[in-house]
Design brief:
Keywords: Coiled coil. This is Nucleotide exchange factor GrpE. The chain is an all-alpha fold and 87 residues long. Helix content is 85%, strand content 0%. The protein has a domain of 57 residues. The protein starts with 6 loop residues before the first helix and ends with a helix.
């Protein structure tokens, strides 16, 4: 048989939940500013790390393009050197 809670039990339960929530989330204005500042700094650090990672990826891509270009120049120089005949 299922027990149906009374309204007074619901009210008591809600009040207890409210008290627990207040205890868990009760912070002073200074604590809130401190917490928000820490979150902001963490976000800035994350963004800087992402920028640094992107710069590293960009540098690697540029280096690869330079290597490819250098190889193409060597191929052209070899063809020119092979086509030149010395008497």
């Amino acid at each position: 048989m299922e027990e149906i809670p009374s309204d007074s039990e619901d009210i008591e339960s809600d009040e207890q939940n409210d008290e627990v929530e207040e205890e868990e989330y009760d912070e002073t204005a200074q604590e809130k500013r401190y917490r928000l500042a820490k979150e902001y700094l963490a976000e800035l650090e994350r963004q800087e790390a992402e920028k640094s990672e992107n710069k590293q990826i960009d540098a690697e891509a540029i280096a690869e393009k330079l290597r490819d270009h250098s190889e193409q120049i060597r191929r052209v120089q070899r063809r020119i050197a092979d086509s030149v005949s010395f008497f």
